Amino acid sequence: MVGFKRRLRFAALTCVLLLAAAATITAQSGGAMPTPTSKAQPTPNKPRAGVEVTKIQLRAIKRRVGEPCPANVTFRGAITTNGPTTVEYTWLSSDGRSWPTRNLKFAAAGTQSVTESWKLGQPGKTVGVWIQMQVASPNRMFSNKVTENFTCAR
């Protein structure tokens, strides 16, 4: 019987504490507590903080078959923004080469093309490299990596 009374007091004390907490929340919110069946409000989409690059694509332009090495391989990229801005970008390559940073001005939202050429290979050697575009601003973004694999004639 003593154990039952203790459990009953504990349950009553828990109810009192929960009611006090609910009253405090209600008083702080200035209104009634929501019912358990009320639907959650959808979270609104966050507005964009500003103009940014929204997409980057990169591909290799096919080189001429039989071209002597070092072969001139050209890569064409496309940068898309959602508004007027200046995009600062560079190229990254598998050999760790240091490429200059370039700026591309957008007067409005849209897509602009960029190209880069890279002399690759030595006679009789196999070439296996990749190149990638990196946008540094207005937001940081990377393109896909494009690989070039071929063997140079002797």
Average pLDDT, rounded to a whole number, is 79
Portion in beta strands: 35-45%
Question: Shape, please?
Answer: elongated
Series of secondary-structure elements, N-terminal to C-terminal:
HEEEEEEEE
Helix percent reads 10-25%
| Oligomer category | single chain
Structural class: alpha+beta
Number of strands: 8
Low-confidence stretches: 15-19, 24-29
Distance between the terminal alpha carbons, to the nearest Å?
Answer: 100 Å
Radius of gyration: 32 Å
Major β-sheet, in short? Answer: 5 strands, antiparallel
Helix count, DSSP H or I runs of 4 or more residues: 1
Description of the molecule:
- This protein is 18% helix and 42% strand.
- It is α+β, with helices and mostly antiparallel strands and 154 residues long.
- It contains one helix and eight strands, in the order αββββββββ.
Task: Produce a short descriptive summary.
The protein is α+β, with helices and mostly antiparallel strands and 154 residues long.
Which descriptors would you attach to this protein?
154 residues; single chain; alpha+beta; elongated
Write the layout of secondary structure elements.
Elements: H1 2-29, E1 53-61, E2 71-81, E3 85-93, E4 102-106, E5 110-120, E6 126-137, E7 141-142, E8 146-151
Antiparallel strand pairs: 1-2, 2-5, 3-4, 3-6, 6-7, 6-8
